[in-house]
Amino acid sequence: MTGVPKRVGVIGGGRMGAGIAQVFATAGAVVTVVEPDRAAARERVATGLRRAAERGKLAEDPAAVLERIELTGELPADAGLVVEAVPEDPALKTSVLAAAEKVVGEDAVLATNTSSLSIAGLAEGLRRPGRFVGMHFFNPVPASDLVEIVAGPQTGRAVRDAAAGWAGALGKTAIVVRDSPGFATSRLGVLLGLEAIRMLEEGVADAESIDRAMELGYRHPMGPLRSTDLVGLDVRLAIAEHLHRELGDRFAPPRLLRDKVARGELGRKSGQGFYSWEAS
Predict the structure, then answer these.
(1) What is the torsional sign of CA 61, 29, 86, 70?
(2) How many CB atoms lie within 10 A of CB 74?
């Protein structure tokens, strides 16, 4: 599989959705982003393109790429791929995906950017579950090298392979995993993050020391606490609660994580998490 679909739909224009739109448009697709707050979504994409150009990672003028991104309230019927990137709420995702399936053609692929929810569960509301697959992108999408392709029990092999090929056409590496709680990345990443939070809670070391231990000792590009700030403490808590229900007590969220979320300390997006962040 070479290239990306000529027309791609992205549902949700938050940080993840904007990043997904950016990389597909950069690869040549015409991208429609369905997002109520269109001005904010466009600014996220424009900022991402500007930063990519500053790093020398963009072959075109940012304005030219931005021209291939349209923000509307409706999906295009001729989209070859639709990526859902709304919050990690199973009912919301199921509803959004079912509505999208009614708009696009029978050959279109529907993908979800979920980081932990069951592909089989989300497919229950679809008439064509064989055309549905997980495409788990990572934050920030333009700079991340990985896309986790999650094959549900009814996902067609051709659809799975097409999704992996599209990831490659975006300049990213795809790994294919079976549908299971937390897949490969969230299951491992969340477990490490939760243990780091427990260590901080117990006073083993401060946040910077815990992160530097993993960065320097194990060559992780980013420590687990800083990574949690980047993902969002509320997002990490929601994933941990889901995995706790599915996989048991080793994923029980620490009290410190719950308390920080309750105080609105959500990480970079709120300006305060395990670290203090300037507005970006």
Answers:
(1) positive
(2) 9
CB neighbour list of residue 87: distance below 8 Å, 6 or more residues apart = 12
Residue that the structure tokens 């991340």 belong to: 144
Local mean pLDDT, 10-residue blocks, the chain (280 residues): 88 96 97 95 96 94 96 94 95 97 97 95 96 95 96 98 98 97 94 98 98 97 96 94 95 98 96 88
pTM of the model: 0.90
Residue 19 CA neighbour count, 13 Å, CB half: 18
Cα Rg for the chain, rounded, in angstroms?
19
Q: Which two tokens stand for residue 60?
A: 């075109």
Q: What CA–CA distance (Å, rounded) separates 33 from 49?
A: 16
What single letter denotes the amino acid at residue 122?
Answer: L
Q: Which residue has the tokens 């009814």?
A: 154
